[in-house]
Specification:
eight-stranded mixed β-sheet; Rossmann fold; 3 domains; 434 Repressor (Amino-terminal Domain); elongated; 18 helices; alpha/beta; binds cytidine-5'-triphosphate; single chain; 36% helix; five-stranded parallel β-sheet
Length: 480
């Protein structure tokens, strides 16, 4: 028989969820665990941590050698809900975190709050804890929290980390990889997706330092929602107002709930963004497309398991995870890249392709003519190729070809005619140009899905949610 103080660490490791879970719990590396296993003993402070963790999970354990006497009852059969770690930053919009937590719970998510020190100037940990029915964590070095969970384990237990309000300071610390409190340590340690809802003064939002931090975070795959335009708490009007709780909760739901990979084995081409048509070497014709909807579609198709080629005009967005992005400038380049990406099972043309390019655009900069004598400059335009129509009518036509129709008037009528003219399967029609419900640059969209014999009016929703629903519809169609 083993001496009384010998510890069977292998059995304990299994009971606590494996080697990585044990490393996380003890905050040590793999070699320390191997040493403990080889020696068959652990230091006293480790022994008490293991005892605490095992008994917290319902095991009956002998104190001196940590022998497991009895396993816990079988767990309840209800599947665990996705868990959102809600990091609340120190800004006036912090109070909206409470409403967002409530909305996320209504969507079936579990929420655990984490507050920065300055967030506690705006709301109390007690109100967060009461609302979420969970302890609200606020201190990196609290021994109780460490014994209960540990910051690494907390970070790893989340299906999504949501930061709101994401202040300029919190974004800067996250971008720099600083981990000087619990919130930023979690951001560094988590492997879950991260969603940030920025909120700050408009001048701070547009400051080059914040723009640079935003780019860094987005390039690392951090998802952003907002900010939106409007009145900010400091009384200034501009971009910097945090998105509304309902929109943030919906975006969190999209990211926290793991989707079945309905499109595994399928290939997709997505066009997105504007095209830019040169007039000369310094001037061009373009449009207001932000690329957000096309990028969201590419991300959603990839999240459902499709191999996606995203052919994009110039936009200010990082490539979505797991997507092969090909950057182009002009409609002709977009057409060539699209044809090179065929064959594919799915094509979604979301790009706002310029209808015309300048005939004989020049390399040299056009000079102003002599004001007294010369005629005004005339630009002669010629039509660009129609990429959607060319895919739909190609020998290598994908099984499902989907276009968008941006219309300023007679939405349905124009979109139905456009679907027929371009010979695509579905057209996603949206009204553009309305001041009350802008589409260009916004996170929201409101569309009609028009098929050969069907017209569906979808409610106004986030572009990411729309993309997700579209991916599900595409999977459904391809499985018929
Ligand atoms: N499209 C395309 N190539 C073009 C023009 C449009 O692939 N040269 C695609 C768009 O990506 C979109 C659809 O066709 O999926 C409709 O685009 P839209 O701008 O609404 O229509 P147009 O064909 O440009 O027609 P109009 O401007 O007359 O409404």
């Amino acid at each position: 028989m083993a001496p009384a103080n010998n510890v069977d660490l292998t059995a304990i490791m299994t009971a606590l969820g494996g080697r990585q879970a044990l490393q996380d719990l003890l905050g040590v590396g793999a070699s320390a665990i191997s040493n403990y296993v080889a020696r068959g003993t652990v230091p006293t402070h480790v022994r008490s941590k293991l005892y605490g963790a095992l008994t917290a999970r319902g095991y009956q354990v002998r104190l001196d050698d940590l022998a497991i006497l009895c396993a816990p009852d079988a767990p309840a059969t209800a599947p665990a809900k996705p868990m959102v770690l809600l990091i609340i930053g120190g800004g006036i919009a912090a109070y909206k975190a409470l409403e967002t937590a409530r909305q996320m719970q209504r969507l079936g998510l579990d929420v655990t709050g984490v507050m920065t020190k300055s967030a506690a100037q705006f709301i109390t940990p007690l109100s967060v804890a009461a609302l979420t029915n969970q302890k609200c964590y606020d201190d990196l070095f609290s021994l109780t929290d460490e014994a209960e969970m540990g910051h690494i384990r907390l970070a790893r237990s989340a299906d999504l980390v949501l930061v709101m309000p994401a202040t300029a300071n919190l974004m800067a610390r996250a971008a720099a990889g600083i981990a000087d409190d619990l919130a930023t340590t979690i951001l560094l340690a988590t492997t879950a997706p991260v969603l940030m809802a920025p909120a700050m003064n408009p001048a701070m939002w547009t400051h080059p330092a914040t723009s640079a931090n935003l780019t860094i975070l987005q390039q690392r795959g951090v998802h952003m929602i907002g900010p939106t335009e409007g009145d900010t708490a400091c009384g200034e009007i501009g971009s910097g107002r945090m998105s509304e709780p309902a929109d943030i909760a919906a975006a969190a739901y999209q990211l926290a709930v793991k989707r079945p990979r309905l499109l595994a084995g399928k290939t997709a081409i997505v066009t997105a963004g504007p095209t830019v048509e040169p007039i000369d070497s310094v001037r061009f014709i373009a449009n207001h497309s932000s690329g957000k909807q096309g990028y969201a579609v590419a991300a959603a198709l990839a999240a459902h398991g499709a191999a996606v080629t995203l052919i994009s005009g110039p936009v200010n967005l990082p490539p979505p995870a797991q997507v092969n992005r090909i950057s182009v400038q002009t409609a002709e380049q977009m057409l060539a890249a699209t044809q090179a990406a065929l064959p594919a099972d799915i094509a979604v043309c979301a790009a706002a392709v310029a209808d015309w390019r300048v005939a004989g655009s020049r390399h040299a900069k056009l000079k102003k003519p002599d004001r007294d004598t010369a005629e005004p400059i005339q630009l002669s335009l010629c039509e660009n190729p129609d990429i959607l129509a060319s895919i739909a009518q190609s020998d290598q036509r994908p099984e499902l070809v989907i276009g968008f129709a941006a219309e300023t008037e007679d939405l349905q009528e124009n979109a139905v005619a456009k679907r027929q003219r371009k010979q695509c399967d579905w057209i996603i029609a949206n009204q553009v140009g309305g001041a009350a419900d802008p589409v260009f640059g916004s996170d929201m969209n409101h569309i009609m899905l028009i098929g050969e014999t069907t017209v569906e009016n979808w409610p106004r929703m986030l572009k990411t949610e729309l993309a997700d629903r579209l991916a599900e519809r595409i999977a459904e169609e391809l499985s018929k």
